[in-house]
Design goal:
Helices cover 51% and strands 11% of the residues. It is built from 24 helices and 14 strands. It has helices at 31-41, 50-57, 63-81, 105-111, 132-151, 192-195, 222-243, 305-309, 317-334, 338-341, 345-353, 358-374, 378-393, 400-417, 422-434, 439-452, 457-469, 473-486, 493-506, 510-521, 528-540, 544-557, 563-568, 577-588, and strands at 8-11, 17-20, 47-49, 88-90, 94-97, 102-104, 201-202, 205-206, 209-212, 216-218, 246-248, 268-277, 280-289, 295-304. A hairpin with a 3-residue loop joins strand 4 (88-90) and strand 5 (94-97).
């Protein structure tokens, strides 16, 4: 270890310790101060918001008490560091650890390619905080650590494979664990489906309600049964959050459906079938008619049994995403009954948003406002907030300050109504990253969204964009590849292709950026955000004819486009290395400076 390059070394395996280059311990005495340092060291960028740290270490105290305790822990750390107190930096919102001056023993173990059997020390062994939020965080980090040992280097590209193998869905530590977190404190799965409400009137109208049949499980032991319940819970969560439907577990028997017809408004149901065979499990998801069993859609995926039983569903989560898209399509063609048409407003509005034109965004906003009058929902407010990011980003409205205020108000309302809605968390996370540059806070929202619903492509996609804004395009590319797996059949696939184009362009992979961008452009030929990157990537590829062609199209869409105007728009990431690549390409293509 180069002492000048890494003057500090942190031991996370076994008892926590922090030593300087001379081997002198500078470990704070307080266990919570030690935990705070470990949490910063294990975060993606060495930083966490004060709110996040307070929630994890002092979740049982009032906000004022937790804030005071955090300040004391920071003082304890600075006191133990002495003259090197600038290793830890804090402002009113965020706490940073200067990871450029620090080496972790976990990184050295991974670089040495030691097998799991050779590593006997537990991550943060013996640290006793006695806070349930910290215990949840520590359990997740230990799972991540064992997976790093199982699957190799932390920087492995996350690229799920279609054919089963030991490393199917190899996942880097860039990405949050995708197991179902909906467990009680006893560790038993919480059955979302059975706890969801039956059909009910909302504001005088009926809400869409569908049935989720009991799963068919073949060849599973106890671990398989628990994993099946977790997977079923993810299906219910995706439907409730993504579509706003009610879900029933159909606890009554099929012969009595006619007696319960008022409880179900959709004449279809979903059923999960799991077949365990050796070290593999075949996952099948069927959408069929509730009475005559006619199949409307069927999807299947085989994955490693051990992974499935650990709650690491990997590529199988794409089945859930596809099922939600199929249900949305079915609802659109069925929404002719006046008593149900109101509940289709949200789906219609979302589809309009992703058409991206000024008129479509205005139309989507009207439908969402109508939906609020019918039934205020967390996701409705979140989509209204999300619309503002398009209006600002595509420069549809000069009153940016007013739009940003509205975005903030809608985002706050969305989380007040339902802080556990995975769609709302993702959309609000994007608002805070794109409009406000609050990357730590936004990252927490994305991670929570993904833990609640790893089958939501939009959350992964917007999280990838956060990494673009934060100057980490390589991580964004890894996520964008995974999004393409999850959303391969999505009606909004072009949006995910756009993210891959942006991330690849910022990372300097212009061939990949052009391929993804031109695929997306077939669906949205006038998407100015996409055109900017195609101009730049073609120029960097020395295809000036292609670059100028796309520049002309960009100027036709955004008539006053210039580099200075672009910089003045407050667009994130322009101050990053990738942002400079983007601007250099635009200039090379002949874009106006002012």
């Amino acid at each position: 270890m180069n002492k000048e390059q890494y003057p500090f070394r942190m031991f996370l395996l076994g008892p926590f310790a922090l030593v300087d280059a001379g081997g002198r311990s500078v470990t704070p005495k307080s266990k919570k101060a030690q935990a705070l340092l470990a949490m910063l060291a294990l975060s993606a960028r060495g930083s966490r918001s004060r709110i996040w740290l307070r929630d994890k270490l002092w979740s049982d105290r009032s906000d004022d008490q937790a804030a005071a305790s955090l300040r004391q822990a920071l003082l304890d750390i600075h006191k133990s560091l002495g003259p090197a107190r600038d290793l830890l930096i804090a402002d009113k919102n965020t706490v940073w650890l200067d990871t450029d001056r620090l080496v972790l023993d976990t990184d050295l173990v991974v670089r040495a390619e030691r097998s799991p059997d050779q590593v006997t020390d537990e991550l943060l062994e013996g640290i006793d905080i006695r806070d349930p939020e910290f215990e949840d965080w520590l359990a997740l980090e230990r799972q991540n650590w064992y997976r790093r040992l199982d699957e190799g280097q932390v920087h492995d590209v996350f690229e799920p494979r279609q054919q089963p193998s030991r490393d199917i869905a190899k996942q880097s530590a860039l990405l949050p664990l995708t197991g179902a977190p909906d467990t009680s404190r006893t560790g038993k799965p919480v059955d979302i489906a059975s706890s969801a409400p039956y059909g009910r009137r909302v504001g005088g109208d009926w809400q869409w309600m569908m049935a989720l049949l009991s799963p068919i499980i073949v060849g599973a032991g106890e671990g398989g049964q628990i994993a099946a319940t977790r997977f079923q819970n993810l299906i219910a969560k995706a439907i409730i959050d993504g579509l706003g439907f009610g879900v029933t577990d159909l606890s009554f028997t099929l012969p009595h459906i006619e007696e319960n017809e008022q409880q179900i408004s959709l004449p279809i149901c979903l059923q999960l079938r799991l077949t365990f065979d050796g070290d593999m499990v075949l996952i099948e998801l069927v959408m069929k008619h509730l009475i005559n069993n006619r199949i409307h859609w069927l999807g299947s995926q085989a994955i490693n049994r051990t992974q499935f039983e650990r709650g690491e569903f990997g590529i199988a989560a794409a089945l859930i995403s596809q099922a939600v898209d199929q249900l949305a399509y079915f609802q659109e063609i069925q929404a002719t009954d006046s008593r149900l048409s109101q509940d289709g407003l949200l789906i219609d509005a979302v589809n309009a948003i992703f058409r991206l034109s000024r008129d479509d965004l205005d139309n989507a906003e009207r439908r969402l406002e109508e939906q609020i009058q019918y039934q205020p929902r967390s996701s409705t407010f979140a989509w209204l907030s999300f619309i503002r990011t398009f209006q600002v980003g595509q420069r549809f409205n000069a009153l940016d300050a007013h739009l940003i205020e509205e975005a903030q108000a809608y985002a706050r309302k969305a989380l007040e109504l339902d802080p556990q809605n995975s769609v709302s968390l993702a959309l609000v996370g994007h608002v805070h990253s794109f409009l406000f540059g609050e990357y730590d806070y936004a990252a927490n929202l994305f991670e929570k969204s993904i833990r609640l619903n790893p089958a939501l492509p939009l959350s992964w996609d917007l999280y990838a964009m956060l990494h673009c804004y934060a100057g980490q395009p390589d991580k964004a590319v890894a996520m964008a590849r995974w999004v393409q797996e999850l959303g391969v059949y999505s009606p909004h696939k072009y949006y995910f292709d756009t993210t891959k184009c942006i991330a690849a362009a910022l990372a300097g992979d212009h061939a990949t950026a052009i391929a993804a961008g031109e695929e997306a452009l077939r669906t949205r030929p006038n998407f100015n955000s996409l055109l900017r990157y195609l101009v730049s990537s073609h120029a960097h590829s020395n295809d000036l004819v292609g670059a100028r062609h796309y520049l002309q199209r960009l100027e036709a869409v955004e008539g006053d486009f210039s580099i200075n105007a672009f910089r003045g728009s407050g667009y994130p990431l322009l101050d990053t290395g990738g942002g400079q690549i983007l601007v250099d390409g635009l200039l090379k293509a002949g874009a106006k400076l002012r």
